[in-house]
Amino acid sequence: MRLAALLLLLVACSRATPEEAAWARLTKFAAQHRYRTWTADDRVTAHRLVQAYTDLPRHDDRQRAGRAYTMLWRILKNDPRADRNELLMAVRGMEEYASFPVPRFIEPARLLAERNIDLPYAEHLGRRGVIEAHRYFQRHPEENDTPQYIAGVVARAHESLGIVLKKRGRDAEAEQEFEAAKRMAAHAFR
User: Fold this and answer.
1) What end-to-end distance do the CA atoms of the chain give, in Å?
2) Max Cα-Cα span within the chain
3) Is the pTM of the predicted complex or chain greater than 0.90?
4) pLDDT in tens for each of the 190 residues of the chain?
5) Tally of CA atoms within 13 A in the half-sphere of 31 that contains its CB
6) Closest by alpha carbon to 106, among 89, 86, 91?
7) Rounded to the nearest 5 degrees, what angle is found at the Cα of 153, between the Cα atoms of 147 and 172?
């Protein structure tokens, strides 16, 4: 009797949370499909698994949440028919949970501008991208981050902001950002 109760308690305590279970399903699929070109069915399955994770009422693991929203972003950004609201949800999730500035701010600002989606928000992302591109490498220095690589990321940030500003009709400001991007890019290719 005691052994049965102990086993029951052990099973109850070892159950995965909904977040852990959704993450396990997602990472299992991603690991199985990592080194192959995804079919349309693979993309649909990945989308469904990512959505199952992002639709959870809360995310206790910020790193996993950041990765999930980034995965969703990567699925949606290449689909010109992607739902506008879902795209914005992915971007907002990355803004909240992801850490690296390229997927978090720089790429979304550019894509939102190119698709003419929520341009004030795209500008917000673009401006944060420029700031965070500078800060990120100071806060998280890594041995492999060469000055050329850092300059390239900062150049992309300025270029993305320039694209947003151009789309908003603010050509003079956009030109300043494009010039800043050119100056940084010159450092990236030395």
Assistant:
1) 74
2) 79
3) no
4) 554 444 344 445 558 899 999 999 999 998 988 888 888 899 999 999 999 999 999 889 999 999 999 999 999 998 889 999 999 999 999 999 988 878 889 999 999 999 999 999 999 999 999 999 888 888 888 888 888 888 899 999 999 999 999 999 999 999 999 999 999 988 776 6
5) 6
6) 91
7) 120
- Spatial CA neighbour of 76 closest among 66, 86, 67, 62: 86
Spatial separation of the C-alpha atoms in residues 49 and 45, rounded to whole Å: 6
Contacts of 18 (CB under 8 A, 6+ apart): 56
Q: Residue 11: how many CA atoms within 13 Å on its side-chain side?
A: 6
* 57 CA to centre of own chain: 19
Q: What share of the chain is helix, strand, coil (3-state, %, to 5)?
A: 75, 0, 25
